[in-house]
Amino acid sequence: MNGDCSNPTLSAGSSRSWLYFRLQRIFQKVALQVTEPDQSTISICSFEGTQLPPGERLQLELGSDGNQYYTTLIGFVPGHSVLVRTPLIQNLPIPVPEGAHVLLRAFSGRHAYTTESHVERVCRSPYPYIHIAYPAQVQQTLIRGALRVRVALPGIASNSLDSDISITRAVVLSDLSISGAQLESEQSLGDPGEKFRLAFKFVVQPNNYEVKLATPAQIQSVRKTKKKNSQEEIFSNGVSFNKLQATEGLLLQSYIQQVLLADRSRVI
Cα–Cα distance between 253 and 213 in angstroms, integer? Predict the structure, then answer.
C-alpha cells in the first residue's frame, strides 16, 4: 500500500529542477560531449559505479505497457534503494503500483546506462517519490565519436552574415548533433565555407520547455539528393554550429539525450 515515508537521506532539493543541475554541472566542469554508441564497449557496473549525481535526468519505463516517463534522481543508498521523483502528468503524479517492473535509462557524459528493477515503495510526503529496489547490475555503454540523431525539425536559414540584404530559406534538419546538423532545402544555401544564420525550435522534456535556438552556422558540404519517395531533387547541406552559448549547448545536448533515450534506432 502507498504511504508516507520519512525524508530520504540523499536529496536533490525539492525546489531545484533538472535544468538547474545541468547548468550547475556545465559551469563547474567542461561541457559534456555527446557521442556515438559502439556496441563493442558494453560493460557491467554497479549503480553506484555510474556516479550519476542527484538531479540527473532519467527515463523510467513502468510495467509491461511500455509507457515511458521522464524523472530525476534524488539519490540512492547502495544495497537498499534508488530514490526518484514520481513522474508527473499535467502536474499530477502518475499512479505507480508497488512491485511493478521498472526499466531505468540514463545518459551522462560518455556513457549510456540501462538497468532493471522493481518498485519497492511509493511515497507521498514530503513530495511524491519512489523507492526502487537497488539494481543488481547496470549495463554501461561507452559512447564514442560525434553523436548524430535523426530528427525532422523545421528551420529557417538566413543568408550570408556579411550581406546587407535579408534572404531566408526554409530548411528541414534531418539529423542533429551538438556541433552541427544536416539541412535539407529546396534552394541552395550556398557553397562550402559560406556562413549564415540558422534558427530552429525543439522541445525539452519533462516540462515541454520550448527552446528557440538561433546560431551562426557554416556550410561544410553540399550535395544534391532526392526527396524520400520522390524524384524531386533537393540540396543536402552539412553545417557546423558556430559560437553556441553555454546554455544553448546545454539545452541542445539535453534534447539529443532525450531523443537517444526515447529511441536508440534514431542514432546515425
Answer: 12
